[in-house]
């Protein structure tokens, strides 16, 4: 394979004016030289591939395209449940939790496999090579989402590095089934230890703060015991903090220290905090103190902003004031957390086509592009940060960094897993009455800014293998 007129971009070479011709044989770089094709071929951009640090593998697309009333998969319908009665009516958080519980009762192996494989296929086509896949485990789902995820992980292993996160969406210490849910998770971790890389829980679904703290404590202890990464869905509200309602983020830090995470957990394991929308209500001083505490603690804490879900779930009118159109659209201000507070953070797609996020696709670049507006992040250096948020920063958060944050091009080296953005010379359209086609010069993407502000079509993206 010959890659001509290549621009190399990475976190250490955001602007590269050198154009390279790269010969690849058997997946290895055989020859690199200054390009002789600058004038004759459109430029290509080679850069670190994309990552979903947080995506739900068992519940995508339950509301879109796969139900019996719209089954175009030619499969026996009894294996593919109809979810059409679970379409959002209010779009509220409680409705999403309750409809997701109802959906879970209908999962079948075939249905989980179909929707999961659709998500993975779409992700790969968009340029993703690694991801953390959340699969729910509780007294309703039993082992089925996990065994299906293990099968998908194996079948896609030549294309995607998939981390499986066994995830408790439901309470572990409250309600009728808390104890049952806990024992399901404990037995899955024991029986499938080799296939699972992370443990995730949702402390905010517990019935009291005390139970939420128990949830966190148990998750830390269990992650250490099984050698897992830890991943919390946390502080998913926009309440003003009060002495009795401090963000649980602070408690996670305290409990990690109390349980000596640094001393006991494997050094390669990270702690990821997703959503954390309540942190947006903190003062600058409190945020700076939080950032300072995390940095000083040396704990491997990473925040994942999930803006598509957050904007849908959190951006509600909160009171009967005389400004009902005014809304707090709370989502972590990720670029500022990185630039201004020195925190480790990234962004992810989270959900698509379900009650928590009925819209969207599995495209991380579309998400990064959306971030320009959501975060008012419109500078050239912001474009690089936003790309990093769905690439090397995301990989670092889930501990699959490898060397993919930066690749120099040297002979003998593999470029496997890098993303190649091609450019077309022209966009061609059918001609009018006289028959000659319309030929319009295509926009050329050569920088992070071009790629994030104007994400190229899937056809222009390919993974180097
Ligand atoms: Zn999630």
Query: Going by CATH, what is the homologous superfamily of the largest domain?
Result: Metal-dependent hydrolases
Strand content: 15-25%
Label the structural class.
alpha/beta
Structural shape: globular
- Work out the number of β strands: 16
Level of helix content?
25-40%
Which molecules are bound besides the chains?
zinc ion
Biggest sheet layout: 8 strands, parallel
Low-confidence stretches: none
Widest sheet, order of strands? 5-6-7-8-9-10-11-12
Computed Rg: 23 Å
CATH architecture of the largest domain: Alpha-Beta Barrel
- Please report the first level of CATH classification, the CATH class of the largest domain: Alpha Beta
Features of this protein?
single chain; 465 residues; alpha/beta; TIM Barrel; 8-stranded parallel beta sheet; 6-stranded mixed beta sheet; 14 helices; globular; binds zinc ion
Fold blueprint:
Elements: E1 2-8, E2 20-25, E3 28-34, E4 44-48, E5 50-56, H1 93-104, H2 109-126, E6 128-136, H3 144-155, E7 161-168, H4 178-191, E8 198-201, H5 209-226, E9 229-234, H6 248-258, H7 261-264, E10 271-275, H8 284-297, E11 301-305, H9 307-314, H10 334-339, E12 345-347, H11 364-374, H12 380-389, H13 392-397, E13 418-421, E14 426-429, E15 438-441, H14 448-453, E16 461-463
Parallel strand pairs: 1-4, 5-6, 6-7, 7-8, 8-9, 9-10, 10-11, 11-12
Antiparallel strand pairs: 1-2, 2-3, 4-13, 13-16, 14-15
Helix pairs in contact: 2-3, 5-6, 11-12
The protein binds zinc ion (ZN).
């Amino acid at each position: 394979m010959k890659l001509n007129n290549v621009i190399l971009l990475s976190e250490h070479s955001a602007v590269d004016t050198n154009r390279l011709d790269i010969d690849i044989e058997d997946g290895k770089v055989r020859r690199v030289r200054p390009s002789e094709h600058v004038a004759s071929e459109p430029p290509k951009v080679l850069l670190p591939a994309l990552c979903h640090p947080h995506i739900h593998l068992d519940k995508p697309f339950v509301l879109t395209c796969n139900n019996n009333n719209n089954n175009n998969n030619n499969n026996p319908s009894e294996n593919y449940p109809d979810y059409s009665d679970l379409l959002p009516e209010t779009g509220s958080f409680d409705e999403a939790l309750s409809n997701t519980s109802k959906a879970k009762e209908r999962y079948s192996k075939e249905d989980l496999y179909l929707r999961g494989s659709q998500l993975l296929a779409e992700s790969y086509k968009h340029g993703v090579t690694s991801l953390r896949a959340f699969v729910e485990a509780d007294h309703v789902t039993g082992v089925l989402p996990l065994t299906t995820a293990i099968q998908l992980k194996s079948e896609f292993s030549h294309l995607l590095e998939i981390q499986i996160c066994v995830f408790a969406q439901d309470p572990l210490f409250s309600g009728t089934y808390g104890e049952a849910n806990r024992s399901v998770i404990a037995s899955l971790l024991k029986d499938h230890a080799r296939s699972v890389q992370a443990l995730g829980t949702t402390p905010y679904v517990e019935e009291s703060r005390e139970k939420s703290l128990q949830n966190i404590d148990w998750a830390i202890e269990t992650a250490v015991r099984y050698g897992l990464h830890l991943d919390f869905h946390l502080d998913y509200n926009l309440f003003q903090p009060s002495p009795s309602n401090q963000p649980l983020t602070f408690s996670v830090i305290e409990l990690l220290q109390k349980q000596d995470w640094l001393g006991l957990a494997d050094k390669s394991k990270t702690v990821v905090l997703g959503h954390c929308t309540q942190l947006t209500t903190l003062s600058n001083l409190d945020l700076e103190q939080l950032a300072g505490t995390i940095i000083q603690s040396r704990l491997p804490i990473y925040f994942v902003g999930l803006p598509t879900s957050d904007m849908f779930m959190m951006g509600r009118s909160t009171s009967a004031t005389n400004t009902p159109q005014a809304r707090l659209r709370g989502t972590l201000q990720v670029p500022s957390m990185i630039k201004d507070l020195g925190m480790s953070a990234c962004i992810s797609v989270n959900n698509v086509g379900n009650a928590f996020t009925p819209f969207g696709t599995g495209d991380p670049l579309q998400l990064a592009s959306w971030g320009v507006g959501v975060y008012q992040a419109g500078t050239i250096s912001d474009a690089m940060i936003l790309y990093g948020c769905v690439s090397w920063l995301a990989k670092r958060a889930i501990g699959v960094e490898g060397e993919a944050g930066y690749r120099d091009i040297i002979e003998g080296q593999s470029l496997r897993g890098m993303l190649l953005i091609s450019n077309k010379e022209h966009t061609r359209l059918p001609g009018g009455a006289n028959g000659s086609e319309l030929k319009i010069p295509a926009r050329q993407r050569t920088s992070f800014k071009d790629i994030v502000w104007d994400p190229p079509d899937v056809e222009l993206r390919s993974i180097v293998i």
